[in-house]
């Protein structure tokens, strides 16, 4: 449970988070500068609802939910349903996010997040990719997988086709390559001053392969 006042720096450094929720820790550690991470919160990053939010792909890949409180009571939404558009979220008037709940990962689960930026720090993602993979203990096949693309659609985007290629399969290099191609096709990037749509698709292709591996 990540309370609404928990900072990026706390998440970045927490041993339990780094061990069990690496995809979230890796997203938190690239936000802004040390000074910003000592003030910025994970809940704030999600409520801001930028398509490039660095903690969102890791949280969605890990199945996180937003806990909401307000005058009508309490409710819960998945992070992917909570972020409704660029700078837009599902909060109603008078509501606030009290916490983010991240499930305990099943055994043999790993997660990772990476972004590409023009500068090393103090920049926003041109593309970000988060993934969480759970392997079957007996066979080593992919039991469950979530691949989430950031900054290539109005909200962080689950790559359902790429996931379906890998789910239930032994994760061979060829299959992982196919998943990267599928993720690139599913992405809906735009061209802007930061990158062309074509370059963003290529980044999705490459970074998806890396994060699954």
Shape: globular
Rounded Rg: 17 Å
The mean pLDDT is 97
Q: Estimate what percentage of residues fall within beta strands.
A: 15-25%
Number of strands: 10
Task: Report how far the terminal alpha carbons are from each other.
Answer: 28 Å
**Unreliably modeled segments:** none
Computed structural class: alpha+beta
Strand order of the largest sheet: 1-6-2-3
Structure commentary:
The two termini are about 30 Å apart. Helix 9 runs antiparallel to helix 10. About 35% of the residues lie in helices and about 25% in strands. The strands form 3 sheets. Strands 1-6-2-3 form a 4-stranded antiparallel β-sheet.
Task: State the main characteristics.
four-stranded antiparallel sheet; alpha+beta; 213 residues; 10 strands
Question: In a nutshell, what does this entry contain?
Answer:
By secondary structure, the chain is of the alpha+beta class. It has helices spanning 8-13, 15-20, 22-28, 34-37, 42-48, 56-61, 79-82, 160-166, 173-186, 197-212; strands at 2-3, 65-70, 73-78, 83-85, 88-89, 96-101, 109-116, 127-135, 142-150, 157-158. The two termini are 28 Å apart.
List the helices and strands and how they pair.
Blueprint: E1 2-3, H1 8-13, H2 15-20, H3 22-28, H4 34-37, H5 42-48, H6 56-61, E2 65-70, E3 73-78, H7 79-82, E4 83-85, E5 88-89, E6 96-101, E7 109-116, E8 127-135, E9 142-150, E10 157-158, H8 160-166, H9 173-186, H10 197-212
Antiparallel strand pairs: 1-6, 2-3, 2-6, 4-5, 7-8, 8-9, 9-10
Helix pairs in contact: 8-9, 9-10
């Amino acid at each position: 449970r990540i309370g609404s006042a928990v900072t990026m720096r706390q998440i970045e450094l927490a041993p339990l988070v780094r061990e069990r929720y690496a995809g979230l820790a890796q997203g938190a550690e690239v936000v802004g500068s040390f000074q910003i991470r000592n003030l910025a919160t994970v809940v704030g990053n999600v409520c801001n609802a930028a398509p490039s939010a660095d903690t969102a792909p890791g949280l969605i890949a890990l199945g996180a939910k937003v806990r909401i409180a307000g005058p009508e009571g309490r409710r819960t939404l998945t992070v992917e349903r909570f972020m409704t558009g660029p700078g837009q979220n599902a909060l109603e008037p008078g509501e606030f996010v009290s916490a983010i709940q991240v499930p305990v990962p099943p055994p043999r689960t790993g997660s990772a997040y990476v972004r590409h930026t023009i500068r090393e720090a103090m920049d926003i993602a041109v593309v970000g990719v988060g993934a969480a993979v759970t392997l079957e203990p007996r066979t080593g096949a992919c039991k469950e997988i979530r691949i989430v693309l950031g900054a290539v659609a109005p909200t962080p985007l689950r790559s359902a086709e790429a996931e379906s290629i890998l789910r239930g399969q032994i994760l061979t290099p060829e299959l992982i390559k196919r998943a990267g191609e599928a993720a690139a096709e599913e992405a809906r990037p735009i061209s802007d001053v930061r990158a062309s749509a074509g370059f963003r698709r290529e980044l999705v292709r490459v970074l998806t392969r890396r994060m699954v591996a």
